[in-house]
Amino acid sequence: MDGAFDEFLHVPARLTVVALLAPTSWAEFGFLRDAAGTSDSALSKQLSALAGKGYVELRKEKTTRAQRTLVRLTSEGRDAFRRHAAALERIAAAAHAPEPAADNTPGLRRAFGT
Questions:
Q1: Would you list the DSSP string of 13-43?
Q2: Average pLDDT for residues 88-112, to the nearest whole number?
Q3: d(Cα 40, Cα 98) in Å, to the nearest integer?
Q4: Distance from CA of residue 16 to its chain's centroid?
Q5: Which residues contact 74 (CB under 8 A, 6 or more apart)?
Q6: Which residues, at least 6 apart from 2, have a Cβ–Cβ distance to it below 8 Å?
Q7: Distance between CA atoms of 64 and 105, rounded to whole angstroms?
Q8: Going by fewer Cβ within 10 Å, which terminus of the chain is more open, N or C?
Q9: pTM of the prediction?
């Protein structure tokens, strides 16, 4: 496996969150929830996990009507996402690489039933 592949970050909900945060400086909790198509509690759980790993920072702001939560990737989170995305791209590229010439080694033919 590619050493840059991040098992923690590869969880679909976390990967979605960091992908949504990557092109922004700060994003509102509600935007992330709606864009990810998840519930408040599910998003909170993922944000807590990401914050615990140092990948995101959360900031709470009081407005005249309510409190809002803003989220951003830390530099560590941004770097981790870039490395992980590059690892995924390498994996995808390998899957699309031309097939090697057939190996007619008898042992391989038996092993693969050909």
A1: HHHHHHHHHTT-S-EEHHHHHHHHT--HHHH
A2: 69
A3: 44
A4: 6
A5: 54, 55, 56, 57
A6: 87, 90, 91
A7: 75
A8: N
A9: 0.79
